TrEMBL record:
Family statement drawn from the similarity comment of this UniProt entry: Belongs to the glycosyl hydrolase 18 family.
Pfam families to which the protein is assigned, alphabetical: Glyco_hydro_18
Leader peptide range in chain numbering: 1-33
Top EC class of this enzyme: hydrolase
Protein name (database record): chitinase
InterPro entries: GH (IPR017853), Glyco_hydro18_cat (IPR001223), Glyco_hydro_18_chit_AS (IPR001579), Glycosyl_Hydrlase_18 (IPR050314), TAT_signal (IPR006311)
Reactions catalysed according to its record: Random endo-hydrolysis of N-acetyl-beta-D-glucosaminide (1->4)-beta-linkages in chitin and chitodextrins
Keywords on record: Glycosidase, Hydrolase, Signal
UniProt xrefs under PANTHER family: CHITINASE (PTHR11177), CHITINASE 12-RELATED (PTHR11177:SF317)
Keyword Phosphoprotein found: no
Length: 162
């Protein structure tokens, strides 16, 4: 007959083992990543201003871009809209083996002046890259989708005096 302290240890060990087994059986199986022919990618966009992350058909996608975060001319980033939505998207995407990236820029009513300003200087370009890396790490993202629409040389404005 085991001693009382040995019985308590055995009971505690059995309880821990039963708890671990119950936890393991309750966890949902890992989702399979979608495999497309010729290593094609199926990319979707989730706008920050509409839509529900629970209604995404993750099983049909390889990548999702969260739209958008906007740059400032000094290389910093404007605060992302609906950060809790982005966090939920990352959690659900990763649980379904879908890579999640941040889309930077977008149409922005045709105003690409911040991109133009930051691109014109090596210091602001460096700040921009460092801020993007920090953003990716903060939200556990898989990458960045650069969506600069449309990079052009701005025409010089001249003033005519009469």
């Amino acid at each position: 007959m085991p001693r009382p302290h040995l019985r308590r240890r055995l009971a505690a060990g059995a309880l821990a083992l039963a708890t671990t087994a119950a936890t393991l059986t309750l966890a949902p199986p890992a989702a399979e990543a979608v495999v497309l022919p010729n290593n094609f990618k199926s990319v979707g966009y989730m706008p920050s201003w509409s839509g529900n992350v629970n209604s995404i058909q993750y099983g049909k996608l390889t990548h999702i871009n969260y739209a958008f975060v906007l740059p400032n001319g000094d290389g910093s980033l404007r605060p992302v809209e609906n950060p809790s939505k982005l966090s939920s998207l990352v959690s659900l995407g990763h649980a379904n083996n879908v890579k999640v990236s941040i889309a930077v820029g977008g149409w922005n009513d045709g105003d690409d002046s911040a991109f133009e300003a930051l691109a014109a200087n090596s210091g602001t370009r460096t700040a921009f890259v460092n801020n993007l890396i920090a953003f990716v790490n903060q939200y556990n993202l898989d990458g960045v989708d650069m969506d600069w629409e449309y990079p052009t040389r701005a025409p010089r404005r001249t003033t005519t005096r009469c």
